[in-house]
Write a structure and sequence with these properties.
The structure is a single chain. By secondary structure, the chain is α/β, with parallel strands linked by helices. The termini are close together. Helix 1 crosses helix 2. Helices cover 28% and strands 19% of the residues. It is globular and about 45 Å long. A hairpin with a 4-residue loop joins strand 7 and strand 8. A 6-stranded parallel beta sheet has the order 1-10-9-5-2-3, covered by helices on one side. Strands 4, 6, 7 and 8 form a 4-stranded antiparallel beta sheet that branches. The structure holds 6-phosphogluconic acid. The site of 6-phosphogluconic acid (6PG) has 14 residues, from loops. 6-phosphogluconic acid binds next to loops.
Amino acid sequence: MRASADVRVFRTPDELAGALADFFVQRAREAITARDAFHVALAGGTTPKSAYALLAESPLRDNIEWAKVHVYFSDERCVPPQSEESNFKTADDVFLSRVSIPREHIYRMRGEEYPLEAARAYAELVSENLGQVPLFDLIMLGMGADGHTASLFPGTDPLIDTDLLVRAPYVEKMKTYRLTFTPRVINNSRHAVIATEGSAKAAALHAALEGPHDPIVYPVQIVAPATGSLTWLADAAAAAELS
Ligand code: 6PG
């Protein structure tokens, strides 16, 4: 296990969702208390959906000053925002449309646009909001069964193009482009959290945390905030192969 990682295992997916939602609330309250704003990049995929739904309900919804929250995305599919594939749509349907975040505080990666242009435009936006090397209060991530995170997929050195903030990789196995933060952004955050659920993730989680360091094979291993914290949240099924 990498010494610097904080790994928390929960009995059930519901407990994992509760822990992820609580983690979000804690980071939001800290950031708003300290800097009167909370800049967070949401994870895509299905794992965080239950946590997003909890944030959109009482009591958690009532614990956050939503007007001070700014929402970004760690990665996005190259699809229109109305697509069921869209990470924005997933979060908007169960979470963002149900809390009082000003709509102008929700910054979509524009998956409907030409990928390279969408990546450039999003990099410009996050730099305008958060500085040349954007400093997020929280970056939320998941992990695929192949060890990818955000849209940093195996087979490509995640550190390629480190001068970029947002990349538009062509993902061969999916025959599609994706938009993704690079490690330069991810590892500059105050806090990064990686939530993993289900037995399909058990082998990758074991490899990522207890196997050799090889981020080309397991890109999730590249997540190591320089001065911020890294927290892994897993349910028992995903953690089943951890020693
Ligand atoms: C995406 C995500 C991706 C996701 C993992 C896990 O756009 O799909 O950003 O990195 O976190 O693929 O996805 P699940 O949570 O659906 O297993």
